[in-house]
Amino acid sequence: MAHKRTIFRNRAWKLAAGAAALLLAAGVRSVDAAATPDAGRTPILMELFTSEGCSSCPPADNWVAQLDAAQPVPGAELIVLSEHVDYWDHDGWKDPFSSAEMTSRQQGYVNALGLKDLYTPQIIVDGDEELHLENGQQASEALQKAASAAMIAVKIDAAAVTPGKPDVLTGKIEADGTAETKSGDVYVAVALDKTLTDVLAGENDGKKLTNVAVVKELVKVGKLEKGKSFDGPFRIKLWAGADPANLRVVAFVQESGPGKVLGAAMTKEIGTGSGAAMASR
Q1: Mean pLDDT of 218-231
Q2: Which of the 8 DSSP states describes residue 126?
Q3: Exposed, middle or buried by CB within 10 Å (0-12, 13-18, 19+), for 209?
């Protein structure tokens, strides 16, 4: 995909006011709810399109990390994915986590949702709504709306890394679509739980940047037919040096388009060895 620098604009967000309003409205919890499975909570998939080459991105990265840890939306589990785009890579710093695939996914949302353009940082919630952090009320209402939406049950079972050349992540996804009137694609995202980068050039030159849930692999593993259930394995080759202790796995079902997310699940509990199993969430 060819890009012109003029297509993309760096949108400065009033993150402090917007984030504070959202957290206060939702009621922040002090525990790390992201590490505490609770089947009664509604999953909300929050996709942050970001780049280490964008000076407006670190505040959004930090805000999403706070949401990931605090889980401030009552009755909901925020499942975040940081998706690093590649169109900032020519402005002095090549983001080591960037990919054309993430840029293409972001462009798909722009087209599907009728947005004016793609930019960083940009957040899409459950595949069908753009989050405006400069508007705390809109952000709060969007997440509360997502928390009340009906979602299909998605479960990740037996996620484990088998050593090899390369290492392989395997597991099984279950999704209950018996009451669903629409079909969806089943995806598995493998993400780095946390990252720390010393940026040596570009707009963030000299900064130490931290991120959570940085997507390294995003794979379509099957199809959920309307009115049916999905129960299938996945097998994903990992990159060199992948550390199972610093991974999280996210599974979600999404209408084609990309469209609305119908259900999602996340786990950080990943076994090692061919017989390893994990407690799913």
Answers
A1: 96
A2: T
A3: middle
**Could you say which architecture CATH assigns to the domain 153-191+216-272?**
Sandwich (2.60)
- Give 239's DSSP letter: P
Residue 261: count other Cβ atoms within 10 Å of its Cβ.
27
**Predicted TM-score (pTM) of this structure:** 0.88
Give the pair of three-digit tokens for residue 196.
């720390």
**Residue 137: pLDDT over 70:** yes
| CATH architecture of the domain formed by 5-147 | 3-Layer(aba) Sandwich (3.40)
pLDDT tens across 54-83, in order? 999 999 999 999 999 999 999 999 999 999
Residue 146's pLDDT band, with cuts at 50, 70 and 90, is very high
Rounded to the nearest 5 percent, the helix, strand and coil shares of the chain are: 25, 40, 40
Q: What are the start and end residues of each CATH 2.60.40.10 domain in the chain?
A: 153-191+216-272
CB of 186 closer than 8 Å to CB of 232: yes
The C-alpha angle with vertex 150 and arms to 147 and 154, in degrees rounded to 5, equals 95
CA angle at 187 for the pair 181 and 192, rounded to the nearest 5°: 145
Residues of each domain in the chain carrying CATH 3.40.30: 5-147
Non-local (6+) Cβ contacts of 256 within 8 A are 183, 184, 185
Burial readout 86-107 (b: 16 or more C-beta within 10 A, e: otherwise): bbbbeeebebebbbeebbebbb
pLDDT tens profile 227-267:
999 999 999 999 999 999 999 999 999 999 899 999 999 99
What's the gap between Cα 121 and its chain centre?
13
